[in-house]
């Protein structure tokens, strides 16, 4: 079922088989669009593949689902930085300062 495929995707991701992980996760996100874990893993997979717009789409969806948890803000900011959207990176810095995990988040973001 879905849990087995998610575990397979996590194993593929952990083994740096990002294309395989993406294939599995794309199907899962259409089945379970509100799954935090699927969105996060697909966002990180797209990030590792250099697919910035797709990574942003998934990580922004995760941010909404998680009610603005800042855990993945460093990755999200890096995606925006890769697209030279520095104003959004600055906004991520502000959100990190205000977030629960501010100190951990801030370590991952710089311009």
At a glance:
This protein is mainly alpha-helical.
Oligomer: single chain
- Helix percentage: over 70%
Low confidence ranges:
none
**Helix count from the secondary structure assignment:** 7
Global shape: globular
Number of strands: 0
Largest sheet: none
Helix/strand order: HHHHHHH
How large a portion of the residues is in β-strands, by DSSP E? under 5%
Distance, first to last CA:
42 Å
> What is the residue-mean pLDDT, rounded to a whole number?
87
Structural class: mainly alpha
Q: Indicate the radius of gyration in whole angstroms.
A: 14 Å
Topology record:
Layout: H1 2-14, H2 18-31, H3 36-48, H4 52-65, H5 73-82, H6 86-98, H7 102-107
Verbal overview:
The protein is an all-alpha fold and 111 residues long. 75% of the residues lie in helices and 0% in strands. It contains seven helices and no strands. Helix 2 packs antiparallel against helix 3 (36-48) and helix 4 (52-65) runs antiparallel to helix 5. The longest helix is centred in the N-terminal third of the chain and has 14 residues, at 18-31. It is globular, with a radius of gyration of 14 Å. The mean pLDDT is 87.
Output the keywords:
single chain, mainly alpha, globular, 75% helix, 111 residues
């Amino acid at each position: 079922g879905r849990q087995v495929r998610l575990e397979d995707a996590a194993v593929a991701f952990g083994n740096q088989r990002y294309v395989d992980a993406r294939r599995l996760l794309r199907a899962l996100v259409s089945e379970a669009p509100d799954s935090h874990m699927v969105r996060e893993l697909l966002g990180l997979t797209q990030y590792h593949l250099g697919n910035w717009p797709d990574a942003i789409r998934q990580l922004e969806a995760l941010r909404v689902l998680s009610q603005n948890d800042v855990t993945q803000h460093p990755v999200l900011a890096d995606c925006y930085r890769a697209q030279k959207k520095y104003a959004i990176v600055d906004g991520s810095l502000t959100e990190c300062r205000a977030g629960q995990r501010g100190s951990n988040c801030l370590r991952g973001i710089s311009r």
